[in-house]
Specification:
Rossmann fold, 39% helix, alpha/beta
Length: 284
């Protein structure tokens, strides 16, 4: 059945569903400034050649590090910055997790397939260098929100040894996608978003994890807010069915929308944060 643009916008444009979306971002920025003051951080470390775009902020674990978490911000591949979401690192740092917040180039200056390669480059850099910041060797986990959730899934579909010969196939030990997009075709029909990301039929197949098998058996965790638009719930159902052999849990966030669920990820008392720690085998 064919649908018009308004149908896709109503299902996939979170700004339409929450008129306070700008206030959420301002809250994240304020919380992030406060969080950075409480953590030992190394900011804007280059993992590639693009100044500012291919950089990461790395926050050291309190005490002995038990794992390394790469977090990928959202923004529909066209907006946001790692510095705006530093606050999500704080509960994990306090739980003994080394956290890397990565940046990547944004659409329309690049295509989403270029962003995927940047994320793999960041993951490879962390695999090779995380131990220099106290993280245990071979302990890389990935989490991301919204477009970052899509990119998180792509790290599980990646053929890492083909990306770089020195990498093992199981570089990622587990992944959590929060409010992710797994089939990008509906976004192609959402004019306000696709004006920047420029998906076409060929791109859809190349960057939709729904059409790829997971490359290994690393556990995959998902979450979607109970108050989110139906499109995000639909995407969550699709990937859980298609990737059933690696899906471990779907963490309930009944009271959250597409923006407040990120606050929940950075809240040590929430089921989402506790689920992420469980994924990394860290109890609370």
């Amino acid at each position: 059945m064919k649908h018009d643009a308004d149908y896709y916008e109503s299902r996939y444009n979170p700004r339409l569903a929450d008129p306070k979306h700008a206030a959420h971002v301002e809250r994240w920025i304020s919380k992030s400034v406060a969080a950075r003051a409480q953590m030992t951080g190394h900011l804007d470390i280059p993992y590639g050649d693009r100044a500012r775009q291919e950089t990461l902020d790395l926050f050291r674990a309190e005490g002995q590090s038990r794992a390394l978490l790469m977090f990928i911000h959202g923004g529909y591949w066209r907006a946001r910055d790692k510095s705006e979401q530093s606050f999500v690192a704080l509960p994990y740092v306090k739980a003994g997790i080394t956290v890397a917040m990565i940046n990547y180039a944004l659409c329309p200056a690049v295509k989403v397939e270029d962003i995927v390669l940047q994320v793999l480059q960041a993951g490879a850099w962390l695999y090779r260098n995380g131990n220099n910041f106290g993280a245990p060797v071979g302990s890389l986990y990935v989490a991301g929100h919204s477009a970052g959730g899509h990119l998180t899934a792509m790290t599980l579909a990646a053929q890492w040894p083909k990306f770089a010969a020195d990498l093992p196939p199981n570089i990622v030990k587990g992944a959590l996608s929060v409010s992710g997009i797994y089939d990008v075709e509906p976004i192609m029909h959402s004019p306000s978003i696709n004006a920047d990301v420029r998906f076409d039929a060929k791109q859809v197949k190349k960057v939709s994890p729904l059409f790829m098998p997971p490359a290994g058996d690393a556990p995959f965790y998902t979450a979607v807010g109970g108050q989110e638009q139906e499109g995000f719930h639909e995407q969550n159902r699709w990937i859980r069915e298609k990737w059933a052999k690696v899906v471990r849990d779907d963490i309930p966030c009944p009271d959250d929308n597409h923006f407040t669920i990120l606050d929940r990820f950075g809240d040590s008392s929430s089921a989402l944060c506790k689920g992420a720690l469980k994924m990394m085998r860290v109890g609370r």
